[in-house]
């Protein structure tokens, strides 16, 4: 995008008229531009990150471990997932359709190690199954009866990425009892998730999404009250979400020892003497894919809102959809990104053509502008008047080349966000690149991008530019020559798919510029 700021765009010439006598050195100019660029990048990064809110804080608690080795392990599965069930706890959830990496084809595993998901009941006046309870098997169901005569039956079914836990309470006693359903998820932090996508604990509270990342949970705990919702954890590509079908819930997020906990407990549900109540808890364990989450939203309300497309969601969503559609035809995401980039350049062609045409006209104006700068060096007001007259004569303006740059900014950040959250792009290979959603480990693409950016700037340079280093326009040109190096370093750690987009865009822009220059001759 920086090619539009060089001296041939008119911006530098206009800037020279404003600062002719500033006396700023070339090195100082470079530092100034670099500082502005980094500050702008930082500010945009702040806006790209989702706003995070805290509610009531809760004192951190040490983790309490119990021995569940005596509880038998069963396995539940579907075409999408496989999980271990040990009484109240679910763990070792494998996503069958997603490999851990391009080299490791074993399934992605959620909640492994010491982590687990526990779904249970807090009793009032009696007892209920605990994590150490050994249930009796009755077909596909688990049955346990407490000393008072209350019978608990648990049935677990799996449909796609959705696990449904039905707890039936049959009160065979002569007393009324109450049970408060609860759930909690304990797991390790995901140190591999990208910094551009929020990860950590999340909760859907009163139709609003609350999120607290790992660093926030390291400092304090959070609590929320809601009529209904869900609670869980989000990684870059995966989610573990639990929703209790019961009203008036309290949700908590905290750190327990070396693990992180996200859980909820609802208001107590009364089970009268001789009555039977069934409490349903829905669990989603799967990819953060919009199509998948939209289908689950009918069961777990609000889960479709957990995908964060950033401030430019209105561009990121159709862009990701377009790339996925192109992939269905070409069967490779690298080729899909290349075709998508060319389509974007064609859509921007009217603006780009106007910008390049203005740039070529600006190159022809340079001798006149430099003559006015020298002639009225001591009269800035007159200099500005004469320069504006030249712009009007040639029907152009100093900022005419900036519009394509301004349009590129939201496209850039929208595509950046789309690539980071795209599960489909994960482990997508292209030529020597094993994963378009991560950096190019060989740094070939960033170097190509920097080279094409330099060539694009070179083609924009006016061969008759002033060689006077005291001229601000000439100094700005020298400063802008450093931008390809700066961008190469910055893009070296960007997703390879994004760097591929920018490289192809540069190459296509070079072709457009050469064609317009040939036509102008």
Question: Would you write up a description of this structure?
Answer:
The chain folds into 2 domains: 2-18 and 313-520, no CATH class; 74-299, Beta-galactosidase, Chain A, domain 5 (Distorted Sandwich). The protein contains 13 helices and 19 strands. It has helices spanning 11-18, 26-48, 214-219, 290-296, 313-330, 333-347, 349-375, 380-393, 403-421, 444-460, 472-480, 483-491, 496-520, and strands at 74-77, 81-86, 89-99, 107-110, 116-124, 136-138, 141-145, 150-159, 162-171, 177-187, 200-205, 208-212, 222-226, 229-234, 238-244, 249-256, 259-266, 269-271, 276-287. Strands 1, 2, 3, 4, 5, 10, 13, 16, 17 and 18 form a 10-stranded antiparallel β-sheet that branches. Strands 6-7-8-9-19-15-14-11-12 form a 9-stranded antiparallel β-sheet. α1 (11-18) crosses α11, α5 packs across α6 and α7 (349-375) packs antiparallel against α8 (380-393). The two termini are 26 Å apart. 40% of the residues are buried.
Give me the secondary-structure topology.
Layout: H1 11-18, H2 26-48, E1 74-77, E2 81-86, E3 89-99, E4 107-110, E5 116-124, E6 136-138, E7 141-145, E8 150-159, E9 162-171, E10 177-187, E11 200-205, E12 208-212, H3 214-219, E13 222-226, E14 229-234, E15 238-244, E16 249-256, E17 259-266, E18 269-271, E19 276-287, H4 290-296, H5 313-330, H6 333-347, H7 349-375, H8 380-393, H9 403-421, H10 444-460, H11 472-480, H12 483-491, H13 496-520
Helix pairs in contact: 1-11, 2-11, 5-6, 5-9, 6-13, 7-8, 7-13, 10-12, 10-13
């Amino acid at each position: 995008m920086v090619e539009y700021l060089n001296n041939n765009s008119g911006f530098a010439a206009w800037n020279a008229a404003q600062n002719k006598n500033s006396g700023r050195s070339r090195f100082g100019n470079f530092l100034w531009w670099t500082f502005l660029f980094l500050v702008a990048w930082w500010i945009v990064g702040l806006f790209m990150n989702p706003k995070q809110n805290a509610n009531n804080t809760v004192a951190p608690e040490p983790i309490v471990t119990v021995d569940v080795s005596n509880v038998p392990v069963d396995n539940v599965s579907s075409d999408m997932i496989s999980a271990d069930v040990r009484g109240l706890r679910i763990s070792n959830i494998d996503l069958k359709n997603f490999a851990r990496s391009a080299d490791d084809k074993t399934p992605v595993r959620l909640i492994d190690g010491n982590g687990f998901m526990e779904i249970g009941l807090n009793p009032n006046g009696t007892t209920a199954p605990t994590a150490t309870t050994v249930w009796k098997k009755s077909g596909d169901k688990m049955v346990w009866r407490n000393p008072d005569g209350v019978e608990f039956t648990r049935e677990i079914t799996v449909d796609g990425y959705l696990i449904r836990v039905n707890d039936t309470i049959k009160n065979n006693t002569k007393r009324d009892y109450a049970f408060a359903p609860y759930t909690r998820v304990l797991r390790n932090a995901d140190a591999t998730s990208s910094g551009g996508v929020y990860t950590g604990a999340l909760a859907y509270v009163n139709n609003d999404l609350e999120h607290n990342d790992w660093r926030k949970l390291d400092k304090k705990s959070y609590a929320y009250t809601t009529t209904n919702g869900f609670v869980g954890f989000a990684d870059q590509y995966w989610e573990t979400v639990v929703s209790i079908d019961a009203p008036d819930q309290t949700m908590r997020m905290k750190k327990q020892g070396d693990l992180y906990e996200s859980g909820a407990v609802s208001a107590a549900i009364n089970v009268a003497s001789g009555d039977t109540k069934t409490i349903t808890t829905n669990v989603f364990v799967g990819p953060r894919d919009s199509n998948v989450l939209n289908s689950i939203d009918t069961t777990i309300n609000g889960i479709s809102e957990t995908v964060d497309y950033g401030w430019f969601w209105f561009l990121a969503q159709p862009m990701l959809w377009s790339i996925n559609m192109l992939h269905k035809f070409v069967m490779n995401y690298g080729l899909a990104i290349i075709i998508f980039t060319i389509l974007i350049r064609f859509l921007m062609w009217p603006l780009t053509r106007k910008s390049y045409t203005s740039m070529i006209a600006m190159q022809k104006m340079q001798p006149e502008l430099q003559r006015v700068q020298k002639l009225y060096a001591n009269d800035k007001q007159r200099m500005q008047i004469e320069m504006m007259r030249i712009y009007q004569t040639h029907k152009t303006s100093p900022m005419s080349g900036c519009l394509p740059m301004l349009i590129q900014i939201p496209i850039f950040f929208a595509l950046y966000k789309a690539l980071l959250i795209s599960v489909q792009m994960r482990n997508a290979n292209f030529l020597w690149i094993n994963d378009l959603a991560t950096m190019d480990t060989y740094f070939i693409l960033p170097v190509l991008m920097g080279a094409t950016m330099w060539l694009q700037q070179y083609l924009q340079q006016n061969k008759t530019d002033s060689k006077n280093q005291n001229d601000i326009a000439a100094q700005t040109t020298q400063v802008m020559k450093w931008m390809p190096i700066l961008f190469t370093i910055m893009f070296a750690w960007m997703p390879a798919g994004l760097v591929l987009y920018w490289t192809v865009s540069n190459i296509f822009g070079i072709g457009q510029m050469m064609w317009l220059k040939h036509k102008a001759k």
